[in-house]
């Protein structure tokens, strides 16, 4: 049987305790504190066709720790253990023996836990010390760094087996694997500055529900060829966005997207309730939680894993760092073609009796309008709506808060119309006279496609 390679995350709040256990050849995993949580007992129940309780189903998600499972850990498998020795660094280990179960009281805990145990041989330096690997070290392949963005608790990296073996060889040969590469440090400093600037822009330009505009546009780029529908607001029924995408055979899948603005750790369990509601009402196939929090709490991760097991679907959490990287990766390229893409979106839209907000067309226009200097202070309250009137006629309606624009209606209206003309230069553009109410100033523009 070929050797396998996997990444296995552990509880970062118990790093010191789990490191001491690793040094003694025991790799411990949490979510196991009762006798009934022994994976061997749960395996026997599953094989006998017995239904697991909700708690047992959550524990059973650790089944790959069993060597009796087809995709379980086997002696000789090589594991990468991120953030175990130190934050941002990795330990490596070879699986040595079969699964055992023995809960223990960890420091600071009132009761036992971490009962799932795999016997391992940590990869050590020639001096016998458990090796510490710096992710930005010159001996670490870039693909290994990239795979660590996966938020799952355990996943296979068999395709990177040769790079893992090269890293093991470097450790056991006494090479320095704990010092960051100077050139990498320099480049990382540059990208950190870029990421910080991107986050500052998101923080200042997208408040409250406006973040949905950005995420809507982002997912349109990620799921190229699919469609993204806006469901946010009072009638969202468990989701802010729904992504419709098809596999190579043409089968459609629905992904619910919940968008949350948080600081620090994301610990909002209502998000999981909303995903469950979306499963019931929208019949989704997967869920995505986009949060501006820096990370998720251990309690949230455990409840998320339990919900995945109970609903039988994958739930992906995208926290602040990954959100910024996705924005830079996808929207940076999309910005190059936004003008060309808008005319395609207009032609692909369907006629509607009234102007609609939060469509693919309005999100593209909103993205462009926020770059206008005249709207720098007004964009936070700006609304964009689109109506396909048929026969190639499209109404674009932009509404601005009356109290914010003051006496500069005409310059702003002219900038909006000029922006639309630049975005669809092949269309006939007819500007309507700005009209106002006590709350809103409305700028209507008719685009007639050739």
From TrEMBL:
GO terms of biological process kind: DNA restriction-modification system
InterPro entries in UniProt: Restrct_endonuc_IV_Mrr
Name the record gives this protein: Restriction endonuclease type IV Mrr domain-containing protein
One example GO MF annotation: DNA binding
Domain of life of the organism encoding this protein: Bacteria
Domain Restriction endonuclease type IV Mrr residue range list: 205-326
Annotated organism of origin: Polyangium fumosum
């Amino acid at each position: 049987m070929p050797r396998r390679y996997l990444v296995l995350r552990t509880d970062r709040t118990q790093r010191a305790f789990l490191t001491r256990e690793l040094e003694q050849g025991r790799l411990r995993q949490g979510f196991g504190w009762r006798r009934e949580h022994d994976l061997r007992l749960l395996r026997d129940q599953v094989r006998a066709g017995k239904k697991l309780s909700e708690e047992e189903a959550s524990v059973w998600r650790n089944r790959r720790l069993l060597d009796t499972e087809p995709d379980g850990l086997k002696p000789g498998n090589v594991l990468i253990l991120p953030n175990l020795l130190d934050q941002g660094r990795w330990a490596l280990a070879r699986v040595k023996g079969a699964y055992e179960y023995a809960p223990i009281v960890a420091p600071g805990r009132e009761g036992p836990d971490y009962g799932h145990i795999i016997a391992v041989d940590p990869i050590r330096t020639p001096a016998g010390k458990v090796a510490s690997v710096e992710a930005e070290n010159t001996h670490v392949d870039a693909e290994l760094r990239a795979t660590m963005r996966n938020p799952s608790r355990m996943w296979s990296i068999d395709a990177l087996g040769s790079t893992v073996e090269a890293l093991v060889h470097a450790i056991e040969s006494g090479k320095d694997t704990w010092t960051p590469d100077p050139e990498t440090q320099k480049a990382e400093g540059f990208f950190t500055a870029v990421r910080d600037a991107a986050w500052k822009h998101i923080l200042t330009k997208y408040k409250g529900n406006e973040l949905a505009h950005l995420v809507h546009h982002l997912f349109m780029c990620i799921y190229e060829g699919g469609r993204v529908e806006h469901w946010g607001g009072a009638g969202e029924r468990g989701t802010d966005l729904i992504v419709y995408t098809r596999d190579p055979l043409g089968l459609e899948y629905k992904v619910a997207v919940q968008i949350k603005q948080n600081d620090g750790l994301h610990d909002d369990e209502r998000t999981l309730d909303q995903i469950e509601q979306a499963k019931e009402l929208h019949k989704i196939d997967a869920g995505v939680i986009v949060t501006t929090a820096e990370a998720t709490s251990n309690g949230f991760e455990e409840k998320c894993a339990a919900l995945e097991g109970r609903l039988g679907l994958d739930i992906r959490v995208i926290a602040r760092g990954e959100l910024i990287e996705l924005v830079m990766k996808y929207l940076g390229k999309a910005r190059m073609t936004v003008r060309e893409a808008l005319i395609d979106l207009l032609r692909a839209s369907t006629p509607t009796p009234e102007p609609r907000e939060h469509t693919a067309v309005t999100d593209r226009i909103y993205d462009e309008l926020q770059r206008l200097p005249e709207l720098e202070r007004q964009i936070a309250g700006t609304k964009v709506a689109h109506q396909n009137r048929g026969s190639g006629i499209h109404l674009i309606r932009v509404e601005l808060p009356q109290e914010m624009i003051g006496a500069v209606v005409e310059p702003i209206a002219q900038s909006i119309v000029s922006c639309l003309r630049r975005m669809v230069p092949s269309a006939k553009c007819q500007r309507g006279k700005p009209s106002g109410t006590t709350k809103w100033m409305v700028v209507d523009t008719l685009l007639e496609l050739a």
